[in-house]
Structures are given as structure tokens and as C-alpha cells.
């Protein structure tokens, strides 16, 4: 009997310790599952945020089609607005441009030739008219025959017709010059459109294209962060949404160490509540949960990496 009582004395503490251990594990699991939940006190709100450029991450598209001859950008590279990002093959377009420019050279030569021909015809016409007038005077003085007079008149008329025809041809050639100039302007525009450049100043985050690949107008070639401030984007539960106001100060904290990385101010608060979208990692989260999107503009301190997940503390007072 004493042996049984002695054993029970050891068993009951062990059962108690086992139960406590299970409760601690359960509590720890619940804490982990709810790690993204906004916490609040009377003077602050603590939640989870994601670091993004203030103007968002853009996907740059090629905006043209052709084979990529060379990629002129690297990941993490700062680029200026208008800086070339890709060299696209333009052999066909350059050939069309050269052909149009060659044609216009030929047309200009034809115009000069036509002008010279018209000038020669005008000289011939003047001589023919002088001959006709002289024959007319001789004919009126009975010193020239009617046949000679008629032949000189026909010669003058022929030169006049030739000039009119030459001038019509010259006008057509000049009109063709305008058409060719329009073609040249078009082909130059096409060639220029093949130059893929940065739409804004900023940083290339991820290059999505390689040399030798073919692109079309809608092909995404890079992920891009426009130059400007960074924001911490967070979502505040509807229970505390009205406590957050633009201009409130905030701190950005490392989720790993708890160290304060940067400071900022609330720069945007949504005017409506929506379904939670950020950090929706847990399958147990309620689908009907409503939140208010909030942006914190970082103003000083160590700027976290774009896309990183951090804690944010919004000061309510």
C-alpha cells in the first residue's frame, strides 16, 4: 500500500507538467496563427506591413515587336527616363527607310532633269515664235509662202504643247516627292519605336527578357520601381479603422529582431472597408473580415527591401 501511494505521488506531478506543456504549445500555435492580426492599445496600433514603392511596382512592356539583339539593363540598376533598355532588330525597317530615301534621291534628280528640259523647251519655243513672226511679216509682204508660214506656226505650237506636258510631269514628280517624304517619316517613326526605353526614372527590379528572344507589344520585359519614396502598406481591422488618420507618425520594425528600421507618417487611408488581401496566409482566417488599407510613407532611417514584410507601429496620439 505504501508503494502504491509513493508511485501516485510521482504520477500526479508528471500529469500536471504534461498538461501544462500541451497548453503552452496550443497557446504558441494560436499566437503564430494570429501573427498577422492588428493589435491595438489606447495610444498605438501594431500590425504587419509590406514595403512597396509609393507609386507601386510597374511591369514595363516592350511596346514593339522583333528580336532582342541586346539587353541594356541589369537587376538593381538605376535608370533615367528615356534610357535605352533593349536593342531590337530593325534590319527590315532600315531597309525600307533606305529604299525610300534612295527613291527620293532618284526623284530629285528627275525633277532637276525635268526643269532643265522645260528651260530648253522655253528657249526653243521663243526661237520658234520669233521664226513664225518673221515668216508672218515676210508672208504679208509677199516674200514668203503660206506653207513655210504654216510650218513655223506648227513648230511653235508643238513646243508650247511640249512645255505644258513637261510641266505636268514635273508637278507629278514633285507630288511623288511629298509621298516619299511621308514614307520616310513613317519608316523613321517605326525605327524609333523599336527603341525600348525606360518610361520613368527608377530602379530595375527584375529583368524578364533575354538576348535572342522575340518580343511583341505586350511582352513584359522588366519589373520596375519608379523613383520616389517607399511606403509600408498595411491593413487595419474595421474595429480600429477610424482611429487611423493621415499625418500620424509611425515606426517600422524588423519582424526578426524587433529593431526599429525606419520612421514615417500615415500618407493614405482608404475611404472604404474591403476584404483582407495582404498576408492572407492562414486557411483559418475569416473570409468576412473587413479592413481599411493604410499607407505609411517612410521618411527616415534604414529603408527595408522592397517586398519585405515588416511590423509597423502607428502612434494614435
Task: Give a description of the structure.
- The protein is an alpha+beta fold.
- The chain folds into 3 domains: 35-54 and 229-315, Efflux pump adaptor protein, beta barrel domain (Elongation Factor Tu (Ef-tu), domain 3), CATH 2.40.30; 61-89 and 195-223, OB fold (Dihydrolipoamide Acetyltransferase, E2P) (Beta Barrel), CATH 2.40.50; 91-193.
- The protein has helices at 2-33, 91-140, 146-193; strands at 39-40, 44-53, 58-61, 66-71, 78-79, 84-88, 196-197, 202-207, 214-215, 220-226, 230-237, 249-253, 260-269, 274-275, 290-301, 309-315.
- It has a 6-stranded antiparallel beta barrel. It has a 4-stranded antiparallel sheet with strand order 3-10-8-5, with no helix packed on it.
- The longest helix has 50 residues, at 91-140.
- The relative contact order is 0.19.
- Residues 1-37 have low confidence and may be disordered.
Features:
Elongation Factor Tu (Ef-tu), domain 3, 317 residues, rod-shaped, single chain, 16 strands, 6-stranded antiparallel β-barrel, 41% helix
Topology at a glance:
Layout: H1 2-33, E1 39-40, E2 44-53, E3 58-61, E4 66-71, E5 78-79, E6 84-88, H2 91-140, H3 146-193, E7 196-197, E8 202-207, E9 214-215, E10 220-226, E11 230-237, E12 249-253, E13 260-269, E14 274-275, E15 290-301, E16 309-315
Antiparallel strand pairs: 1-2, 2-11, 2-16, 3-10, 4-6, 4-9, 5-8, 6-7, 8-10, 11-15, 12-13, 12-16, 13-15, 14-15
Helix pairs in contact: 2-3
Question: How would you briefly describe this protein structure?
Answer:
This protein is α+β, with helices and mostly antiparallel strands. Helix content is 41%, strand content 28%.
Amino acid at each position: 500500500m505504501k508503494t502504491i501511494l509513493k508511485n501516485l505521488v510521482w504520477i500526479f506531478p508528471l500529469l500536471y507538467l504534461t498538461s501544462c506543456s500541451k497548453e503552452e504549445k496550443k497557446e504558441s500555435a494560436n499566437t503564430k496563427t494570429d501573427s498577422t492580426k492588428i493589435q491595438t492599445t489606447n495610444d498605438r496600433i501594431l500590425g504587419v506591413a509590406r514595403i512597396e514603392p509609393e507609386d507601386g511596382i510597374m511591369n514595363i512592356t516592350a511596346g514593339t515587336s522583333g528580336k532582342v539583339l541586346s539587353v541594356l539593363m541589369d537587376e538593381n540598376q538605376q535608370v533615367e527616363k528615356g534610357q535605352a533598355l533593349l536593342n531590337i532588330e530593325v534590319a527590315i525597317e532600315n531597309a525600307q527607310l533606305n529604299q525610300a530615301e534612295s527613291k527620293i534621291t532618284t526623284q530629285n534628280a528627275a525633277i532637276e532633269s525635268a526643269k532643265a528640259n522645260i528651260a530648253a523647251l522655253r528657249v526653243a519655243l521663243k526661237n520658234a515664235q520669233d521664226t513664225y513672226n518673221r515668216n508672218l511679216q515676210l508672208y504679208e509682204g509677199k516674200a514668203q509662202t503660206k506653207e513655210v508660214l504654216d510650218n513655223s506656226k506648227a513648230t511653235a505650237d508643238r513646243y508650247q504643247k511640249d512645255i505644258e506636258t513637261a510641266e505636268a510631269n514635273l508637278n507629278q514628280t514633285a507630288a511623288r516627292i511629298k509621298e516619299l517624304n511621308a514614307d520616310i517619316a513613317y519608316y523613321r517613326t517605326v525605327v524609333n519605336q523599336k527603341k525600348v526605353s525606360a518610361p520613368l526614372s527608377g530602379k530595375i527590379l527584375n529583368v524578364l527578357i533575354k538576348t535572342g528572344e522575340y518580343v511583341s507589344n505586350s511582352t513584359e520585359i522588366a519589373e520596375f520601381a519608379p523613383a520616389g519614396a517607399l511606403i509600408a502598406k498595411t491593413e487595419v481591422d474595421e474595429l480600429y479603422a477610424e482611429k487611423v488618420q493621415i499625418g500620424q507618425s509611425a515606426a517600422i520594425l524588423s519582424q526578426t529582431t524587433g529593431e526599429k528600421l525606419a520612421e514615417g507618417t500615415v500618407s493614405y487611408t482608404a475611404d472604404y472597408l474591403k476584404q483582407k488581401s495582404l498576408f492572407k496566409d492562414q486557411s483559418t482566417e475569416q473570409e468576412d473580415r473587413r479592413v481599411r488599407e493604410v499607407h505609411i510613407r517612410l521618411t527616415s532611417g534604414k529603408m527595408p527591401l522592397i517586398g519585405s514584410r515588416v511590423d509597423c507601429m502607428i502612434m494614435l496620439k
